[in-house]
């Protein structure tokens, strides 16, 4: 199972089109969704303050020496997030119908402004990634999505939202109720899943791009998104060096909300500690990971057991 990822796994009974039912889980995680029924009631918040001087230097070098001329801080953080999920697949789980599933891909929703005026329209994009993606792969996919959605034309998400605005309130309420309950049992129309920003591995917002600090953003009960990363502005922070002197360093604050029902606290801590290391040492993102582990709670399929 070491090198098998969810994207290459065949569906079995009980699986969803967007995820695989986890059957080898700790009994505590079988019970906890019945006690903590909502994602918003199961959130844990924490923050990381990361030094970014070396990261800025890394970005400037790649802008000058590679084809990634418009590489941004956000794209590096997204690449670090993709790598974090690839190496720690337990963070790529979700609760639906009070059962625990593993996503069958890595997807990140991002809200973007079509233009930076106050009245400028906002939309959401959701690029799909693979566990083997490098920084260049992530840059290419994100850049393509940003370029395609910077026009005033609506994308799929906008079309669905706009359609709902033409319906009477009572009918919108019914449609959302219906979709919500269909999603619990894995029968929500695939087209809705594909355009929904709430059905993703995680959600990322770059609050720092408009000059303010990061915020603790809530998760959404609708959908399958189990973590939310908010990136704040860069600022100077005092720290004590090894000689006991106070020095000023440039830092960036990142705040995260996670659904604590998908894995234990130690797994969360190790996952986001490695995420911080990736941001501090982004050169690791230039090459694919050597090994992509499978979710430890994903049991072998019937076909795999037959061939053993």
Describe this structure in words.
The protein has 308 residues and is an alpha+beta fold. The protein is 34% helix and 22% strand. It contains nine helices and ten strands. The strands form two sheets. Strands 2, 5, 6, 7, 8, 9 and 10 form a seven-stranded mixed beta sheet that branches. Strands 1-4-3 form a three-stranded antiparallel beta sheet, covered by helices on one side. Helix 3 crosses helix 4 and helix 3 packs across helix 8. The longest helix has 16 residues, at 169-184. The model has no long low-confidence stretch (mean pLDDT 89).
Number of helices: 9
SSE order, as H and E? EHEHHEEEEEHHHHEEEHH
Overall form: globular
Helix coverage percent of residues? 25-40%
Largest sheet: 7 strands, mixed
Computed Rg:
20 Å
Strand content: 15-25%
Number of strands: 10
How many angstroms separate the termini? 12 Å
The whole-number mean of residue pLDDT values reads 89
Structural class: alpha+beta
Query: Stretches where pLDDT falls below 50 for ≥5 residues?
Result: none
């Amino acid at each position: 199972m070491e090198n098998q990822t969810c994207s290459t796994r065949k569906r079995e009974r009980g699986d969803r089109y967007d995820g695989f039912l986890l059957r080898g889980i700790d009994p505590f995680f079988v019970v906890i969704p019945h006690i903590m029924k909502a994602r918003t009631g199961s959130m844990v918040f924490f923050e990381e303050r990361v030094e970014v001087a070396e990261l800025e230097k890394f970005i400037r070098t790649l802008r000058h020496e590679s084809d990634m001329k418009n590489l941004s801080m956000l794209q590096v953080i997204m690449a670090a997030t993709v790598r974090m999920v690839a190496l720690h697949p337990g963070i790529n789980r979700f609760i639906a119908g009070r059962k625990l599933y593993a996503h069958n891909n890595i997807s990140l929703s991002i809200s973007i402004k079509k233009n930076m005026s106050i009245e400028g329209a906002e939309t959401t994009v959701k690029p799909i990634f693979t566990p083997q993606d490098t920084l260049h792969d992530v840059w290419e996919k994100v850049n393509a999505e940003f370029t395609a959605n910077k026009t005033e034309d609506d994308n799929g998400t906008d079309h669905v939202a706009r359609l709902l605005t033409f319906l009477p309130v009572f009918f919108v309420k019914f449609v959302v109720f219906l979709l919500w309950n269909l999603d619990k049992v894995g029968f929500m129309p695939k087209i809705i899943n594909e355009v929904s920003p709430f059905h993703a591995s995680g959600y990322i917002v770059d609050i720092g791009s408009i000059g303010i600090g990061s915020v603790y953003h809530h998760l959404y009960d609708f959908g399958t998104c189990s973590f939310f990363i908010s990136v704040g502005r860069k600022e100077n922070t005092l720290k004590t060096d090894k000689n006991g002197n106070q020095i000023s360093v440039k830092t960036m604050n990142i705040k995260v909300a996670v659904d604590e029902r998908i894995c234990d606290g130690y797994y969360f801590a190790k996952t986001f500690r490695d995420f911080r290391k990736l941001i501090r040492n982004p050169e690791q993102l230039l090459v694919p990971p050597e090994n992509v582990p499978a979710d430890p709670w994903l049991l072998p399929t019937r076909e795999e057991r037959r061939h053993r």
